[in-house]
Amino acid sequence: MLLATASTMVAMAQQDGTLRLTLDDAINIALSENPTIKVADQEITKQEYAKKGTLANLLPSVDFSAAFNRAIKQQVVYMGGDMGGLGSLGSNSSTDGEGSDNEAEASSEAANKGFKMGRTNTWSLGFSGAMPLINAQLWKQLKLSADEVEMAVEKARSSRLSMVSQVRQSFYGVLLAEASHQAIKENYDNAQQKYTDIKQKYEHGLSSEYDLIRAEVAVKNVEPNLLDAENSITLAKWRLKALIGIDLDTDITLADSLENYTDTLYAEYMKVDTTMVAGSSAMRQLDIQGRELLKARDIAKAAYYPTLNLSLSYQWNAMANDFKFKNYMWNPYSVLAVQLNIPLLSFGRRHYSLQQTKVQISQLQLTRIDTERSLMLGVRQYSDKMLTGIKQYDSANEGVSLARKGYDIATKRYDTGAGTLLEVNDSQLALTQAQLSRSQAIYNFLVAKAQLDETMGIDYTPTSENK
């Protein structure tokens, strides 16, 4: 199902004056507009790029480079060997000793003087390429990158589960506020109607002033509760609008009520399997982390394996004492090399890295056991809350029927003069409390169900598909 955007929904609100939301609409808007969800989706894209980057390390790389060197002072080269000896070899054996000494001294002076080598400007440019032929660490790193993408997907799923749960609870909160307002409004209307009837009777001398005062006080006592209920609706709608990401000034109305969920309470509870937590996002993330650590261990082991790399370089060099480029002679130079690296000694660096990974695997196994226990506890708690909500609803629903019957009897008794106004007020209070208790029971069940679905990792099913 396509996600509706907040801008589209707001445009509809501007046309109709009020934005009419179902639970599906609220969830769809939140999943498309909430920044947390967008960040999680972008994390998936980032990890996919990281995986492609790892794959690129296995492919050839080609670089172009250019360099210019300016010799400030050229290097001086000295010739080795005994220059004096060379001089004596070239002389006649009959030469007198003084001549030999002079020639040896001259040769030694020439050798010590040396000569400059190279030219002032050196230019070089060319291409170089490299490619790993055998590299176990890179191969295993590619498998680890695939798990990192899967982890990003699962974290995005966890964010969606959390967002759906929050939206559901906030949506149900608005429904509870409206149901509470409806019960209090009924109480207020009944008190107002009773006050009007008693006032008319008082004006005709059929009722006492005390009953008139009591009726008016009853109306005044309900008014603050009615105002609080109206304010609760406003606050609940603000929280919902802020959560799903629409403007707080947008008028919204919910196309739903708590009563619409009463027929599915038992069915929803019977679907719960308190032994299934494998679908929990927390458990799935731990499983992925376990696979990542196993691959990290393999990568640490691969550090002991030899690597074989291929490289190719093709360059052009030129040397000159001026900047007349057209007269330069560019000499090509190319090298093809195969490099073999065999790890021999690292003073325990690779060994300690491998041992550290093994400890992390052991820690993760213990964490998984603890997490599974916590999830099982949470599932049972939420399941118990659902069952308690059903029992509370049954009791409160029966209480509403009895309280309404009692209110009707008290009203008739008062109208016939057999009862008192106090009985009417008490029965009305009992009816209001029973209605509020019934609405609270339904709300508690729905909130517990939303929390249970998040804990167990159950994806939300649109209400239209449930019907």
What does this structure look like?
With 467 residues, the chain is of the alpha+beta class. The chain has helices at 6-16, 23-33, 35-56, 83-89, 97-113, 136-203, 209-244, 265-270, 281-302, 349-415, 421-456, 463-466, and strands spanning 19-21, 61-70, 75-77, 115-117, 121-134, 252-254, 307-320, 331-341. α4 packs across α5 (97-113) and α6 runs antiparallel to α9. The two termini are 16 Å apart.
Topology (elements, then pairings):
Layout: H1 6-16, E1 19-21, H2 23-33, H3 35-56, E2 61-70, E3 75-77, H4 83-89, H5 97-113, E4 115-117, E5 121-134, H6 136-203, H7 209-244, E6 252-254, H8 265-270, H9 281-302, E7 307-320, E8 331-341, H10 349-415, H11 421-456, H12 463-466
Parallel strand pairs: 1-6
Antiparallel strand pairs: 2-5, 3-4, 5-7, 7-8
Helix pairs in contact: 2-6, 3-6, 4-5, 6-7, 6-9, 6-11, 9-10, 10-11
